[in-house]
Amino acid sequence: MSERTFVMVKPDGVQRGLTGEIVSRFEDRGLKLVGAKFMQIDQELAEEHYGEHEGKPFFDGLVEFITSGPVMAMVWEGDDAIRQVRRMMGETDPADSAPGTIRGDFGLDLGRNVIHGSDHEDPGSNEREIDLFFDEDELVDYEKVDEGWLYE
Ligand code: DAT
Ligand code: MG
């Protein structure tokens, strides 16, 4: 089933020049980019985005980190996109992430794990995050020429 997922290259990924590589991986996989915004997250947006982690010992550091520099916020669309993006990202801790995954190829530290993606085990988190970062008219509906070759 086609679905949309929220993906973000975090400040460490942007600063390390990994944005293009990460976009390429999703393009190569066949996912369709339907929204993108290069932006800096303020405190309020950060606290809302990571609301599920409020009260945890790492929360303040996480908010400080995610607001510390620009991010590339994106919406990617495709069959099973939420779960497939999570599989491509690897585990939350890069140290546990298999080589070949984004975190497994580009990270070493839990607090600097390069990328965010909506949680496929938290139904509705994709919609929530997309709504939080994008207005309706910032998402683009279009047909990609390779769709007939990607899907049976
Ligand atoms: P994910 O980003 O894989 O969805 P999450 O939602 O559990 O992971 O946590 C959000 C971010 O918070 C995660 O990318 C890195 C940070 N984080 C999670 N658990 C942590 C911990 N125990 N110590 C420090 N940072 C942590
Ligand atoms: Mg999460």
Automatic annotation (TrEMBL):
InterPro entries in UniProt: NDK-like_dom (IPR034907), NDK-like_dom_sf (IPR036850), Nucleoside_diP_kinase (IPR001564)
Major localization listed first in the record, in broad terms: cytoplasm
E.C. designation(s): 2.7.4.6
One Gene Ontology MF term: metal ion binding
SUPFAM superfamilies: Nucleoside diphosphate kinase, NDK
Reactions catalysed: a ribonucleoside 5'-diphosphate + ATP = a ribonucleoside 5'-triphosphate + ADP; a 2'-deoxyribonucleoside 5'-diphosphate + ATP = a 2'-deoxyribonucleoside 5'-triphosphate + ADP
Keywords recorded for this protein, A-Z: ATP-binding, Cytoplasm, Kinase, Magnesium, Metal-binding, Nucleotide metabolism, Nucleotide-binding, Phosphoprotein, Transferase
Localization: Cytoplasm
GO biological process, one term: CTP biosynthetic process
The keyword Iron belongs to this UniProt entry's keyword annotation: no
Cofactor(s) recorded in Swiss-Prot or TrEMBL: Mg(2+)
Pfam families attached to this UniProt entry: NDK
GO CC term, one of those recorded: cytoplasm
Binding-site positions, ATP: 10, 58, 86, 92, 103, 113
Stretches assigned to the Nucleoside diphosphate kinase-like domain: 2-141
Annotated active site: 116 (pros-phosphohistidine intermediate)
Family: Belongs to the NDK family.
HAMAP family from the UniProt entry: NDP_kinase
NCBIfam families noted in UniProt: PRK00668.1
Reported function: Major role in the synthesis of nucleoside triphosphates other than ATP. The ATP gamma phosphate is transferred to the NDP beta phosphate via a ping-pong mechanism, using a phosphorylated active-site intermediate.
Protein name: Nucleoside diphosphate kinase
